[in-house]
């Protein structure tokens, strides 16, 4: 199967490349460099890429992920988070190809007293969430054979995410202050990539656009996640020793974009699809650090 991967240079894109199964003809597209460089904010460039590669399946791991910056640049974020998925879905429908595209817990607001299900009403409270929801709707309206994979709190050992940031600070002996009143589903990029490939193996079941929640199986606060990550980092020698960890309220760490207070995703549907449970936080952290100490991703 020929698969086109957009956003190949990102943390999820790198994990998707590393875990691609045998038999996949994976064509990777990046913003610059390589044979398939493409400006994903330009529709004509995207369509030219698709016509050139002729993928049987598109995995869209590209997105505007700068959550706070999106508050000041919503239209630019909308191009990558909404327009691009729409272009890909329309091409896929016209060429009988499949599409997997990723979305976010930021489409939700409130605390339902249980994990969010795929059919719960959306109410995004940030520019990032609004643009990602708009992308979902474009795919759903396209009629393409598509899976929208909502995920949450994605981390890895690669730069530019919560885990790598706190480990870098702890390695310098800095104490940490971490929010304790936002609850979510920490998701290792490696687990997300592996679940994605399992869904590719079962893509013949997809005949219309559908949403699946694909996230870590454990619910906790950012502070609890930091505590478990730091404990693991000490155990494997990634940091020299424990550092101070102070639990704080969201108000003590002001950010431009409003974060969901409850980001726990119900993953039972995807677990039924792939025939195995999603990784717990402890399982995923163990695997993440095992690879961190050798090679990445």
Report on the structure:
Helix content is 38%, strand content 17%. It has helices spanning 11-18, 43-53, 74-94, 127-142, 162-171, 189-201, 222-235, 268-274, 281-292; strands spanning 2-6, 25-29, 57-60, 98-104, 145-151, 154-155, 176-179, 183-184, 187-188, 210-213, 220-221, 245-248, 262-263. The mean pLDDT is 96. The radius of gyration is 19 Å and the shape is globular. It has nine helices and 13 strands. Helix 3 (74-94) packs parallel to helix 4 (127-142). It has one domain: NAD(P)-binding Rossmann-like Domain (Rossmann fold, 3-Layer(aba) Sandwich), CATH 3.40.50.
The CATH superfamily turns out to be NAD(P)-binding Rossmann-like Domain
CATH topology: Rossmann fold
Global structural class: alpha/beta
Q: Radius of gyration from the CA trace?
A: 19 Å
Write the layout of secondary structure elements.
Layout: E1 2-6, H1 11-18, E2 25-29, H2 43-53, E3 57-60, H3 74-94, E4 98-104, H4 127-142, E5 145-151, E6 154-155, H5 162-171, E7 176-179, E8 183-184, E9 187-188, H6 189-201, E10 210-213, E11 220-221, H7 222-235, E12 245-248, E13 262-263, H8 268-274, H9 281-292
Parallel strand pairs: 1-2, 1-3, 3-4, 4-5, 5-10, 6-9, 7-12, 8-13
Antiparallel strand pairs: 8-11
Helix pairs in contact: 1-6, 2-3, 3-4, 5-7, 7-9
Organism: Wenzhouxiangella marina
Keywords: NADP, Oxidoreductase
Protein name: dTDP-4-dehydrorhamnose reductase
């Amino acid at each position: 199967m020929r698969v086109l991967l957009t956003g190949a240079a990102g943390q999820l894109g790198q994990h998707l490349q590393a875990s691609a199964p045998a038999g996949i003809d994976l064509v990777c597209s990046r913003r610059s460099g390589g044979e398939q460089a493409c400006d994903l904010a330009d529709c004509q460039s995207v369509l030219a890429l698709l016509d050139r590669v002729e993928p049987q399946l598109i995995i869209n791991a590209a997105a505007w992920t700068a959550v706070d910056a999106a508050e000041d640049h919503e239209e630019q974020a909308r191009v990558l988070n909404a327009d691009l998925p729409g272009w890909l879905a329309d091409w896929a429908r016209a060429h009988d190809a499949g599409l997997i595209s990723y979305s976010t817990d930021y489409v939700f607001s409130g605390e339902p007293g249980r994990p969010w299900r795929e059919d719960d009403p959306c109410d995004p409270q940030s520019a990032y969430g609004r643009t990602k929801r708009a992308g979902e709707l474009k795919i759903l309206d396209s009629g393409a054979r598509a899976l929208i994979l909502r995920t949450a709190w994605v981390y890895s050992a690669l730069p530019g995410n919560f885990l790598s940031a706190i480990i870098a600070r702890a390695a310098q002996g800095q104490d940490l202050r971490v929010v304790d009143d936002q609850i979510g589903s920490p998701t290792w990029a490696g687990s997300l990539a592996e679940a994605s490939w399992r869904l590719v193996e079962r893509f013949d079941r997809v005949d219309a656009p559908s949403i699946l929640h694909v996230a870590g199986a454990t619910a906790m606060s950012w502070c609890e996640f930091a505590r478990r990550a730091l404990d693991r980092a000490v155990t494997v020698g990634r940091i020299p020793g424990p550092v101070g960890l102070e639990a704080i309220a969201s108000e003590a760490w002001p950010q431009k974009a409003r974060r969901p207070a409850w980001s726990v995703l119900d993953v039972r549907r995807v677990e039924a699809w792939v025939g195995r449970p999603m990784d717990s936080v402890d399982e995923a952290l163990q695997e993440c650090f095992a690879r961190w100490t050798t090679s990445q991703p």
